[in-house]
Amino acid sequence: MRLAGEAAGRLAASGVRASARGFLPAAANLLERALALRPPSAPQRPDMQMFLGATLLEQGRFDEADRHLALAEEAARQTGSPRRRSS
């Protein structure tokens, strides 16, 4: 499990760098792969899903973005993450 966690961290970091360089499709792919390696209860999951949602929004993939942002909100609620959308 430690190896999967390390791989997820590296994939997520690569996704963030790809997004910063404007490579949005690559960023979304890397972030999706990182999320696949994280268990639903992982504390990093809400931030990763929020960033993926924002990346998908920038690409105009609104339905997918909405789904990931909603999942990020739910994961934040479950893990106690302070990053939650204000209601």
Structure description:
It is a single chain. It contains 4 helices and no strands. It has helices spanning 2-20, 24-37, 45-58, 62-79. The longest helix is centred in the first third of the chain and has 19 residues, at 2-20. The radius of gyration is 12 Å and the shape is globular.
Summarize the structure.
This protein is mainly α and 87 residues long. It has a single domain (2-79), classed as Serine Threonine Protein Phosphatase 5, Tetratricopeptide repeat, CATH 1.25.40.10.
In percent, how helical is the residue content? Answer: over 70%
Point out poorly predicted stretches.
none
Total domains, how many? 1
CATH homology-level superfamily? Tetratricopeptide repeat domain
Strand content: under 5%
Major sheet, described briefly? none
CATH architecture: Alpha Horseshoe
Query: Could you give the order of the helices and strands?
Result: HHHH
Total DSSP E strands: 0
Report the end-to-end length measured between terminal Cα atoms.
35 Å
| Mean pLDDT over the residues | 88
Count of helical segments? 4
What general form does the structure show? globular
Radius of gyration: 12 Å
What structural class do the secondary elements suggest? mainly alpha
- The CATH topology, please? Serine Threonine Protein Phosphatase 5, Tetratricopeptide repeat
CATH top level label: Mainly Alpha
